Amino acid sequence: MVYADRGYDHDKYRRLLRKKGIRPKIARRGSPHGSGRGVYRWVVEQTLALLHWFGRLRIRWERRDDIHEAFLMLACDIICWRRLRRTLRQEL
């Protein structure tokens, strides 16, 4: 399933997704807000914002893909660790 905002509201995109076996969830233009699509999008935007805290990921300096991927994985690990640590503190 693919969630998208009103910018992708066109039958061409829906057809392409269905052709690939993906069910589209695209908000229609002119429909009232509050349909719930923003709940899923916010998670993605928050994750990208968290990754941008790490300067080496904001602007890519490394030429080698494996080094960039290593920094990306390290940043994801740090983000998950911080979130887990905060959750565990709240439970105690």
TrEMBL record:
A Pfam match is DDE_Tnp_1
One Gene Ontology MF term: DNA binding
- Report the superkingdom from the record: Bacteria
Residues of the Transposase IS4-like domain: 2-76
Query: GO annotations under biological process?
Result: DNA transposition
Cited InterPro entries: Transposase_11
PANTHER family tied to this protein: BLR1914 PROTEIN (PTHR30007:SF1), PHP DOMAIN PROTEIN (PTHR30007)
Which protein are we looking at?
Answer: IS5 family transposase
Q: Which organism is it from?
A: Actinomadura namibiensis
Give the organism's phylogenetic lineage. Answer: Bacteria, Bacillati, Actinomycetota, Actinomycetes, Streptosporangiales
